[in-house]
Amino acid sequence: MSAAAALVRTVDYHTAGEPFRIVDFAAGGLPAVPGDTVAERCATAIGPGGSGTAPRRGPLDDVRRFLVQEPRGHAGMYGGFVVPPDDDGAHFGVLFWHKDGYSTACGHGTMALGAWAVDTGRVPAPDDGDAQVRIDVPSGRVAATVHRAGGRTTGVTFRNVPARVGARKVPVATTLGLAEVDIAHAGACYASVAARDLGLEVTRAALPGLVRAGQEIRAALATHPGTWHPGGPLLSGVYGVILHEELPGTPFGPHQRNVTVFADGQIDRSPCGSGTSARLALLAEDGRIGPGEDLLHESVVGTVFTGRVVPEGSAGGSRDGLVTEVTGTAYRTGEHAFFRDPLDALGAGFLL
Q1: Are 190 and 274 in contact (CB under 8 A)?
Q2: In this predicted structure, what is the pLDDT of residue 28?
Q3: For position 30, what pLDDT does the model report?
Q4: Whose CB among 93, 198, 277, 313 lies 3.0–4.6 Å from 38's, allowing a Cys bridge?
Q5: 144 with 157: CB under 8 angstroms?
Q6: Displacement of CA 316 from its chain's centroid (Å)
């Protein structure tokens, strides 16, 4: 990491248990990321010949590694670089990152960013009522509606880019047996499988088996045509595998618990924001949810998102796919000034 980036300031949030570390490049005095759009800046971060989960080394990626690796981070860390938006229609842009590289979408991060933008005064908001924060991400423009009461943020609703189904009932052989996998795109590509089909339950005790199954399914679908997105390679390929189980439904709609295994075996502690959008696309195609109904979506740690379908033809509806909204909570956990001592042999960090 360059001397100019030897000090990095962050604001940390968690959304339903999943961390999100925010780095405002301009406010922190860090160099601008080349590119005219957020998607181009994401490609810059990944580097020529790299991929989302195998970026090329460079000054920008050194900052990511510095923040995500121990002793400053951990293998479950997630975060984002705040960068300029594509145009004046958004408040800012963001490059999402995790321990293995970069992602094109992040619902829990979008919720955290919405809360951060309002909490810091970057986007004005009433003491009681809602404020909308528009954010450009590599997969498009998303919005976070920040709910306020008594002068504080009480929740955030994330409206995603349109979601669509890529493939259904794709047979995938795993060491735990044959799985039928559904594929949906919701800013990133997700593969969904019923945990019980592999003899698993969505519990903390079952996490080793869930992670192994997720890694095997992701690898098996590497070249499947259902994972291709018309937006190109940046949006294509399985990003996360959602292993889900049914719970008793509510008067408002279905109720499920899931664990999302993404990148190279990373576990989403939240119910996964963009993954919830992917689940909604599949449930809607099955006729199990429609406008006016809610998906109660639980995580492996017991936190909850509420997902819903936006009716086509309403404000924000789209003919390009299913528009979804996901509501959850995001809380600030700390503010940090991370240093790298030039004499520290472990200064760049490590992962176990």
Answers
A1: yes
A2: 83
A3: 85
A4: 93
A5: yes
A6: 21
Distance between CA atoms of residues 56 and 53, nearest Å: 10
Give the active site residue among 42, 106, 189, 272: 106
Crossing angle of helices 59-68 and 38-46, rounded to 10°: 80
The pair of three-digit structure tokens given for residue 65, joined into one six-digit string: 């590694």
Single-letter amino acid, residue 140: G
Largest Cα–Cα separation, the chain: 60
Write down the pLDDT at residue 314.
52
Amino acid identity of residue 284, one-letter, is: A
Note if 42 is an active site residue.
no
Q: Give the count of beta carbons closer than 10 Å to the beta carbon of residue 76.
A: 15
pLDDT at 184 > cutoff 90 = yes
Place of tokens 């990321």: 33
Enter the tokens of residue 342.
């030039």
- What is d(CA 14, CA 6) in angstroms, rounded to the nearest whole number? 25
Residue 285 contacts residue 322 (beta carbons within 8 Å): no
Q: Is the peptide bond before 342 cis (omega within 30 degrees of 0)?
A: no
Q: Are 226 and 281 a contacting pair, CB within 8 Å?
A: no
DSSP state of 51: B
pLDDT recorded at residue 3 = 43
What are the tokens at 300?
């492996």
Q: What is the DSSP string of 53-81?
A: TBPPP-HHHHHHHHHHSBTTS-TT-EEEE
Helix, strand, coil fractions of the chain, as percent rounded to 5: 20, 40, 40
In the numeric block, which tokens belong to residue 312?
A: 């086509």
Query: Model confidence over 65-110: pLDDT tens digits?
Result: 999 999 999 999 999 999 999 999 999 999 999 999 999 999 999 9
pLDDT, mean of residues 309-333: 82
Q: Is the pLDDT of residue 229 over 50?
A: yes
Give the β-pairing of 78-83 and 18-24.
Answer: parallel
